[in-house]
Here is the input.
Amino acid sequence: MELIKRISLLQELNVKLHRKDFLLTWEKSYDELVTVLEVAEILREMREQNISPRIFDSGLGVSIFRDNSTRTRFSYASACNLLGCAVQDMDEQKSQIAHGETVRETAQMISFLTEFIGIRDDMYLGEGNKYMRQVAASLDEGYENGILPNRPAVVNLQCDLDHPTQSMADLLHLINHFGSIEKLKGKKITMSWAHSPSYGKPLSVPQGVIALMSRFGMDITLAHPEGYDLIPEIVELSKKNAAESGGSFKMTNSMEESMVDADIVYPKSWAPYTIMQQRTTLLQNADKQGLVELEKQCLIENSKHIDWEYNEKMANLTKNQNALYMHCLPADISDVSCKNGEVAADTFEKYRLDTYHQAGYKPYIIASMLMTTRFEKPLQILSDLIFSANQRVKE
Amino acid sequence: MELIKRISLLQELNVKLHRKDFLLTWEKSYDELVTVLEVAEILREMREQNISPRIFDSGLGVSIFRDNSTRTRFSYASACNLLGCAVQDMDEQKSQIAHGETVRETAQMISFLTEFIGIRDDMYLGEGNKYMRQVAASLDEGYENGILPNRPAVVNLQCDLDHPTQSMADLLHLINHFGSIEKLKGKKITMSWAHSPSYGKPLSVPQGVIALMSRFGMDITLAHPEGYDLIPEIVELSKKNAAESGGSFKMTNSMEESMVDADIVYPKSWAPYTIMQQRTTLLQNADKQGLVELEKQCLIENSKHIDWEYNEKMANLTKNQNALYMHCLPADISDVSCKNGEVAADTFEKYRLDTYHQAGYKPYIIASMLMTTRFEKPLQILSDLIFSANQRVKE
Amino acid sequence: MELIKRISLLQELNVKLHRKDFLLTWEKSYDELVTVLEVAEILREMREQNISPRIFDSGLGVSIFRDNSTRTRFSYASACNLLGCAVQDMDEQKSQIAHGETVRETAQMISFLTEFIGIRDDMYLGEGNKYMRQVAASLDEGYENGILPNRPAVVNLQCDLDHPTQSMADLLHLINHFGSIEKLKGKKITMSWAHSPSYGKPLSVPQGVIALMSRFGMDITLAHPEGYDLIPEIVELSKKNAAESGGSFKMTNSMEESMVDADIVYPKSWAPYTIMQQRTTLLQNADKQGLVELEKQCLIENSKHIDWEYNEKMANLTKNQNALYMHCLPADISDVSCKNGEVAADTFEKYRLDTYHQAGYKPYIIASMLMTTRFEKPLQILSDLIFSANQRVKE
Here is the structure.
């Protein structure tokens, strides 16, 4: 009955997640984030105790992936399945951004018996999150006009701004690693750019990490070579978050400096914000020649920073030479997946299982987001499920 | 218990839907159509009352889409899911019509634990419905020879002749809009060709609409430019239907004339029947040059009729300047999805939510077709489900 | 309660299938094979009696198809669905063998809430089975390190060595056809090469058939033109099996000779082992020109053996001119699917329904493999399910 006790503690929080989409962590209050994290943990424990969290007898969980995905695709499928929904993928088979009219219509057409819509749209700066809000607005219209029997929740499975299912899974990993959410206070986390021989990696992971971790009193260091900026507004937001939560926020153009005394390191490649802006314009103009030249120029620029590799030398600068290494995977591993990557092979290997643990929280985070946005009283439903104690698997 | 009363009324009808596929509405009796419509409505009400209509603990609902689909794909998936079946898509990855031998074999191979097979095959005149019957014949052989433990029902998700899940959903929309099936008597519905800058749109929607609506005492007007004929046999059938049901059937080559005093208008583009015949022959001969020329010629012909747009001027001719506008979606909207389309943007906007309501009936119509063809006593099962009153979603 | 009696007989067998993958029939003991066969039959009977074998309330059955599949895809989907799991396909969208690192990682990423992983990887000699073992090793690591809450079972859906779901379904067909497993003793089965105008057909079916059937006291004849060898180690294994089980094993380069007095014939094309070796090397070197030449040369070689067709003349040589014809389907049928195929059209037609029956066992064989590898006490679970007698379909 320890789970029931944990649920009752949550009931005291001030939470309004119901019928609101989960698009950006910074639109959610501290209590709301805590609720999503704790419900995820409870769902994970229920599964370990073979208690079924099945809420739905039928219902669709729609996925729209406008970019490739394995990890998030399987996490979303697992989450929908865990709650009792069947996944139905909406395959657009076309990469251009559909105009407003069609988004509006399509959103209805796929939602008549749908409980959730998970969307990945991270290719175009200024577009992905906007698209999710267009879908959401259409669902509102459909629900308010009696076209949809219920309002499916939209969950951001990665956009141009944030990757909340990733950052929340990362956070849950940290909470369990360090023992509690309170113990994260004063921990130093370094979100560092790292070299990769590829180009155009989204900004959503580093942005999501700094914007979320800064809510919990951590000392954030953001490191990247000159010019590899993130979206300025999100950096500003993170600074503000850090100040408010009793943490700190610092930036540097030196990877070494950023690593000193770090408790946690997150070395990961991304494309500079200004390049992503140029790229979006070129894509919108279908300027193929321009895109080829931009890619070429970027790879040359990247290659000036092959020393931004996380390796033993870097690790030795961290707290006790043993900062927790994090990555959203797959990592570009030097001499394994490429010549000069984000991380040295032996360093990655040391923390490889940690990164698998980190990834393993995502299905439960998504399931929690689905539950808490879809139901008015998700904690009551959880309690009922635990008291019923139906087996997930017959034994 | 109002639902139980409605079910008991249906039990007096003379219906033989069990173990018969749903391929063409004109193969079904009036009582059978009424049963499918009313079961769809009952399923919709059950969902609104959170009563689970889950009949299957396991079972596959196979889909074969030989042409693109979003709306019908999601409707079929929703219907299968609502009843408890998992959708398994049969992806042929080839567009040519498979020869008899392979159809026969494939039909068995995908059916060992299958409850339903939904098929869309609308590309080739003379082929789609024939293909469905080949599949059905093979299923008969498999069932009769003890290869298949039960006979999956085949449901036509659009063929060259009919689009019964669309026309039945359209009909249910009309019944609910006007209040009852009896109130459709004497209503004037105009099925009109409309201009589109695309070519080769199937005939199945207009054919399905005139052949079905003519069963219910409505006054049908079929309008199109000279040469844009539908399959003559289906037009003849519709005339006969209209005469028998106490309605009327009229044809005109003037869009304006067709709109006068209409209660309902359904302006939609299609390719002329004779063009579809030529196209089928060219496709069968793999005559690429011929196809290019045919398309060019058709678009030139189409462009002579850009005045066949449904707009305020047309709408003002209808009953009270306010005929119910219908479309199977997506509509070609002038200055939105194309320059000169089927409907003016402001006119479409006025009825946009109506078209969403119209589309929303399709999942329930399909679920009803699945139930009534699969079970000997679907009404008894429905009653049992309502008495059990298992929740679809835990609350 | 006849099913309960059958289950209790199985409980006396010495079986260790739990937490072991099903990759090769020759890694399983006689008792283990008998258990899988009998559980498959019990599952089939349960379905016929409308008793639900649903064990899972939620859970994913992942499929990885590195080669096309219809039959096995639907069988796997049916099996997962029958037990209560949802199928989630892992679409690699690339044909090259991923290097060790990525396989290891991907295996974890798709398994957090996964119960089963079915894999088809039959394109490269020396690679398919190896890949499955890499996945399995990674799952072991994840389970042992607490990353995966349970260890998903890996089931071989066809590799370069064996096709156990096919050969076990074939065997179950034979058991039911001849009345019992004991009655297979002394039956003569001819696994014969047959002509096909295609190239590169896998060796796994003939290898799987001779390696499995030789366990049950049957007299095996393996026939093929000179040079069309199977993997030598598997032929040697089959000889040893035959000797140990009281059967016999014979090879010939004459199709006619192989057919004399056969009770069962399995005429099917395959590519010579040495060609498959060359092909693997060429593919690994991405030698397109070499591949084109190899294919050309092989088709010329094949065309020298168009007389290796199973037809009335061949059938007349068999026991009572009526040997049971088997094929994994689709067969290359002369004058139907090609000019000179594996089997004459009239001969195939005579046994066509038999081949459908044969194929129909595969979903139950797979479901049995899933159950017996996943659970410590699958027979106890089966008994419980039968006593509960929940309906699979409401009636």
Confidence is low (pLDDT under 50) at residues 94-100 of chain C.
